[in-house]
Amino acid sequence: MSRSFDLNLLPVLVAIHEHGSVTSAAQHLGMSQSAVSTALARLRGKYGDPLFHRVGHGMKATSRMRALIRPLRQALSQVDETLASESVFTPATTQRTFNVSGLKSITGGLSLGDAVWFSGDAADCSSPGAALLPTTAGGGGVGGKSPSS
């Protein structure tokens, strides 16, 4: 397959196989029947096979489609797993530095040491590894000075 292949077509192919009809696959995918039919036509051209034969009101997979379905399901499942395993922000374990502009107005002029960030009174809200870096709107540190000066 060329690099220009539209991977969005693959879930359509799997849905037609699972639901046995273009109409049911379209409903499952939230697409129009016409869009699913167009996708199937493109897939047929790409694979050089009809992929499905019309049987009554449904579709029956060709031998080529039956050979494709397992690897297609595995590939789509692997893609889904990569999306599900994206990291989630957890304040208690973060090691990030947060640049905060306007901290003086937020804290009413208190020093950074007096400012309250992620109050320890709230359950599971402390961030021992997080650091605050007060900055001005121009990107410098407190009072317009860079943090290293």
What does this structure look like?
- By secondary structure, the protein is an alpha+beta fold.
- It folds into 2 domains: 76 residues, Arc Repressor Mutant, subunit A (Orthogonal Bundle); 48 residues, no CATH class.
- Helix content is 40%, strand content 12%.
- It contains 5 helices and 4 strands.
- Strands 1-2 form a two-stranded antiparallel sheet. A two-stranded parallel sheet has the order 3-4.
- Helix 1 packs across helix 3.
- The protein is elongated.
The whole-angstrom Rg is 27 Å
CATH 4th-level superfamily of the largest domain = Winged helix-like DNA-binding domain superfamily/Winged helix DNA-binding domain
| DSSP helix fraction | 40-55%
Q: Supply the helix-strand structural class.
A: alpha+beta
Q: Provide the CATH architecture of the largest domain.
A: Orthogonal Bundle
Overall mean pLDDT: 78
- Overall geometric form: elongated
Tally of helical segments: 5
Number of strands: 4
CATH names the topology of the largest domain as Arc Repressor Mutant, subunit A
Order of helices and strands: HHHEEHEHE
Strand order in space, largest sheet: 1-2
Distance between the termini: 57 Å
CATH class of the largest domain: Mainly Alpha
Runs in which pLDDT lies below 50 for 5 or more consecutive residues are 110-124, 140-149
Q: What fraction of residues sit in β-strands?
A: 5-15%
Count of discrete domains: 2
How is the biggest beta sheet arranged? 2 strands, antiparallel
